[in-house]
Amino acid sequence: MFNKRTKIKDLLSGEKTGQEVTVMGWVRTFRNNQFIAINDGSTNNNIQIVIELGLIDDATSKRITTGASLKVSGKLIESLGKGQKVEIKATSLEILGDSDAEKYPLQPKKHSLEFLREKAHLRFRTNTFGAIFRIRHALAFAVHQFFNDRGFVYLHTPILTASDAEGAGEMFQVTTLPLNNAPTKADGTIDFSQDFFGKATNLTVSGQLEGELGAMAFSDIYTFGPTFRAENSNTARHLAEFWMIEPEMAFYDLEDNRNLAEEFIKYLIGYAMKHNMEDLEFLDTRLKEEENSLPQDKRSEMNLIEKLEFVLNNSFEHITYTEAIDILLASPAYKKKKFKYDVQWGIDLQSEHERYLVEKHFKKPVIVTDYPKDIKAFYMRQNDDGKTVAAMDILAPGIGEIVGGSQREERLDKLENRMKEMDIPSEEMSWYLDTRRFGTVPHAGFGLGFERMVLFVTGMTNIRDVIPFARTPKNCEF
Ligand code: ATP
Ligand code: MN
């Protein structure tokens, strides 16, 4: 019977002293042959086990090593030592699983994040990753809470698809054809009619197009699932497999869309502040220590919790793309030729431009709207100026783009014309165009990259550290 155990978090936060308790977990440290710090992942704090002389024999004592798993029963008492309020005076101790101290990679000392990325199968057992993944869990839960409270339907859009939602062509192909002997057509190209689905398919880059179909019936839907992009960009902000949240709302224009996105981001931050303060404080301290070794001008102006509070308590800035370009052109950075990429109306904003706007100019999250139509997807609603579309990107300090969204083109003729201009075959998309044929309505939506949100809330800087097992170019371990 394993269920009669108390989680360490509950023991530390108010279970009454004097009672008999059982805990199970993994040894963090064992000192003086008497004090074991044990952790079960419910909190970063360990509970201290006190072993009285004679309770266990020498052989057992030697097996209490870092990483070993234990079952301990005893009395919860007030601690005499410093550093903890309560501890357990053991009356029985059982070793559930040994851990060879010579071979166990995690020592009771600080390891680099790079080292822990290689040991991703064990890194959950460290304080840093314990905190990160408890926060990630809470944020995922909060996503559902937020939309459920507002009457949105959670729609499971497909992972296998034959459409390229973004038209960006950064897709992983899915096939059961033999790669070294694929059937070909007369013209030498691969004959996908013999493939599993009878046509070329790939892993989804976005659930949006299917999401729109849902919004045309439920009014408000959201998706929350894995998304795949075969983009060969080895950056600290891109993964080949990441999770995305994509709400899609009928009867929403771009302004409604902006407001929902801002409310949503603030809700997620507020949720973590309410439910994960202990872990946030741990990460906050960690970040301060990391930055202590940096020169003054490289350190953050605000610590993690101050930053989250600041975002929570201030409105996001809203500017148009055209205004963003004007700000960049007038900036000291531009005049001193500090940007690597040139600035002019029509460019896709580079990460250095986004970061300038957010970190140097406005010093808070910025929503940029109304981008040139030529750098955006076909489904975005065309503005009256003939040059721009009703797109919005939300840029966050330290991250860059965290949300991409738009009001969608609901007018069939305009949408079809745009697809023609962009060489998107409308026969294959006729299911999508049906939404515009039968009861079309103004609608809008956005995509929030979940890992980028977790990066923002945890203050981590590499996206590989906020997903359990990162998939990036040339790396698909575990
Ligand atoms: P970026 O310019 O940063 O590559 P994008 O314009 O390709 O982003 P969208 O297609 O608008 O992004 O996707 C919506 C959101 O998904 C982005 O705002 C971002 O938060 C997230 N996202 C996009 N690509 C990735 C990726 N490769 N890894 C992790 N998150 C991503
Ligand atoms: Mn991209």
Features:
478 residues, alpha+beta, 8-stranded mixed beta sheet, 14 helices, 31% helix, globular, binds adenosine-5'-triphosphate, binds manganese (II) ion
Helix and strand arrangement:
Layout: H1 8-12, E1 20-31, E2 35-39, E3 47-50, H2 58-62, E4 69-78, E5 86-97, H3 113-118, H4 127-149, E6 153-154, E7 160-161, E8 173-174, E9 201-203, H5 208-218, E10 220-228, E11 241-250, H6 254-275, H7 277-292, H8 304-313, E12 317-320, H9 321-329, H10 332-335, H11 351-362, E13 366-372, E14 388-396, E15 400-407, H12 412-421, H13 430-437, E16 443-449, H14 450-458
Parallel strand pairs: 3-5, 6-10, 12-13
Antiparallel strand pairs: 1-2, 1-4, 2-3, 4-5, 7-9, 8-9, 10-11, 11-16, 13-14, 14-15, 15-16
Helix pairs in contact: 4-6, 4-7, 4-14, 6-8
The structure holds adenosine-5'-triphosphate (ATP) and manganese (II) ion.
Your description of this structure?
With 478 residues, the protein is α+β, with helices and mostly antiparallel strands. Helix content is 31%, strand content 22%. The protein has 14 helices and 16 strands. It has helices at 8-12, 58-62, 113-118, 127-149, 208-218, 254-275, 277-292, 304-313, 321-329, 332-335, 351-362, 412-421, 430-437, 450-458, and strands spanning 20-31, 35-39, 47-50, 69-78, 86-97, 153-154, 160-161, 173-174, 201-203, 220-228, 241-250, 317-320, 366-372, 388-396, 400-407, 443-449. An eight-stranded mixed beta sheet has the order 6-10-11-16-15-14-13-12, sandwiched between helices. Strands 1-2-3-5-4 form a five-stranded mixed β-barrel. Helix 4 crosses helix 14. The longest helix has 23 residues, at 127-149. The mean pLDDT is 94. Adenosine-5'-triphosphate (ATP) binds next to strand 11, strand 15, strand 16 and helix 14.
